[in-house]
Amino acid sequence: MLNGYLLIIITAIGYAALPIFIKQGYNLGLTIDIMLFIRFFIASISLMFILLVSRRKSFTTYKAYLPQLVIQGLVFFGSAYCYTLSIKYMSATITNILLYTYPLMVVLMSTLIFKEKFSLIKGITLFTTFFGCLLVIDVISMSALKMNMLGVLYGIGSAVFYAIYNINGQYLSKHIEPLTVSTYTSVVCLLVTLAIYPPINGFAEHSYSAILMVGLGTAILCTVIPLFCYAKGIALLGASKASILSNIEPVIAIVLAGVILGEKLTIIQLAGGFLIILGAMLLKLDDLKQPLTLNHSVSR
User: Fold this and answer.
1) How many whole angstroms separate alpha carbon 57 and alpha carbon 85?
2) pLDDT digit string (tens) for 102-115?
3) How far apart are CA 240 and CA 234, in angstroms?
4) How confident is the model at residue 55 (pLDDT cuts 50, 70, 90)?
5) How many C-beta atoms lie closer than 10 Å to residue 43's C-beta?
6) Smallest Cα–Cα separation from 74: which of 108, 40, 30?
7) Which long-range contacts (C-beta less than 8 Å, at least 24 apart) are formed by 77-81?
8) Residue of 14, 60, 65, 57 whose CA lies nearest to 39
9) CA torsion angle for 78, 152, 230, 64 (degrees, to 10)?
10) Region 194-215: what's the mean pLDDT?
11) Quick one: angle between helices 249-256 and 267-282, nearest 10?
12) Threshold 0.70, pTM exceeds
């Protein structure tokens, strides 16, 4: 169980750095097609290499679970696509917080669709972390006129896709090793990127050093490591616990944005960060071992 918490924390650190790299990519003149392609290209090559070298037995077609694997890739791409566009229109911090409204969606889907037991501790934790997120984006003093509504919609869209990614990911983790799931996910994302933006021919117009920096950052630090850690983490903790615990990411993202992008912290944001961490701590009081059973609910 402790290993599960550690894996989700590592995931949070990796994903917290993602908006920083993307925002820097936009600042350096990169476009969404370039950033998505280089991210998933490097990630796919890296994951396939790791899989072939360390776990040859895991590199199979998994025909019985291919539909779920494709779905996993599609919903992750949907989340990544919306997330990247949201950062184009809003600050990295606000986009990151909007993504982390997804635990509410995960818990609701788990409870209503898959009949997961909704414990008191989980309810308190969810309320605490969600309220903390609201404080982090400083909704008390923020003017609606300052918000780009297109960016908000993309941010919420990213959260919806990511919630589905969590639910489907727990089902797959019961049958397929996390590294294999992560590899399929990245490859599907790469193929979808190529389908939407054919062909990728704009590299000559951009700085190769910028492409390399953003590509390696988003692919290795923010995709390969988090994909593997999160897939393994939800297998150990369950979708709801993993999703709520990962709400420590906004705190990390705020610190990174403050140091690298110059975004300032307020007392309200610090209070929100404290509530998010407190909510993560409350998870340890929840003794629910296997909160979600998907075998009978998802077609094979």
Assistant:
1) 37
2) 767 777 777 777 66
3) 8
4) low
5) 26
6) 40
7) 77/188, 77/189, 77/192, 77/193, 78/157, 78/158, 78/161, 79/158, 79/159, 79/161, 79/162, 79/165, 80/36, 80/39, 80/158, 80/189, 81/32, 81/36
8) 14
9) -30
10) 80
11) 150
12) yes
CA-to-CA distance for 254 and 20, rounded, in angstroms? 10
| Nearest Cα to Cα of residue 291 among 225, 245, 228 | 245
What's the gap between Cα 56 and its chain centre? 27
Q: Helix, strand or coil for residue 297?
A: coil
Rg (CA), the chain: 18
Which residue bears the tokens 């009978």? Answer: 296
Strands (E), 227-281: none
Burial class (CB in 10 A: 0-12, 13-18, 19+), 151: buried
**Token pair listed for 299:** 């077609």
Of 189 and 117, the structure prediction assigns the larger pLDDT to 189
The least confident of 132-141, 195-204, 211-220, 277-286 is 277-286
Structure-token pair, residue 279: 């909510």
Distance CA 54, CA 2 (A): 24
Helix 120-136, helix 102-112: angle, nearest 10: 150
Q: What is the pLDDT of residue 46?
A: 93
With cut-offs at 50, 70 and 90, classify the pLDDT of residue 294: very low
CA distances from 222 to 21, 127, 218 (A): 9, 27, 5
